[in-house]
Amino acid sequence: MKMTEKQQRFADAYIELGNATQAAIEAGYSEKTARVIGQENLLKPAIKNYIEAAMNKIKSDRVMSATEAVELLTSIARGELIETVVAGEYTVDKPPDAKTRMAAAKEILKRYPASDRMLNAQIRKLEADADMAEAKAKVFDGEVENITLNITQFKEEEDG
C-alpha cells in the first residue's frame, strides 16, 4: 500500500525529529489529534517500512565500508592524505610520516595473500618509499624548527 503525501511528510519529519506527535504536526495534522495520529501512523506497514528503510540507509551511510577503508589506507600509504601539524602557534600541512605510511601499507597487505613474488617486490618498494619519506620528513621537521626559531628570534628582536 502506498503512502499519501501527508503520510510521506509525516514519515520524513519523524525520521528527522524522532517524535511522532511533532512529526504529525509538521506534516499538517491537527494539533489536537497529532499524538494519536502520530502513533497510528507508526503502526501502518507502509510508513513503518519506509521509516525503517530510511533509518537503515542513514546507519549504513555512517559506517565505513571495507572498500572505503582500503581506499583510505591506500591514500595514507601513498602519502596523498595531508594532515595538519601544530608547531607552537603555527600550523603546517604535511603528508603522513613513514611509520604511518608503513602501517597503512601493512593493513592493506593483511587483506591480500602474501605468497606472491610480485607482492613481495611491492612490499620492498613500499619499505624503500617509507624510508625515503622518513628521511624527507626529518629534513622537513628540521626546516619547520628553523622557521619557528627564526620567527621567534625576529619577534624578540622586534620587541627588544
Automatic annotation (TrEMBL):
The keyword Ion transport does not apply. The keyword Coiled coil applies. Residues 116-143 form a coiled coil. Gene3D superfamilies: 6.10.140.2160, Terminase, small subunit, N-terminal DNA-binding domain, HTH motif (1.10.10.1400). Pfam families: Terminase_2 (PF03592). Keywords: Coiled coil, Viral genome packaging, Viral release from host cell. GO terms for biological process: chromosome organization. This is Terminase small subunit. It comes from Weissella muntiaci.
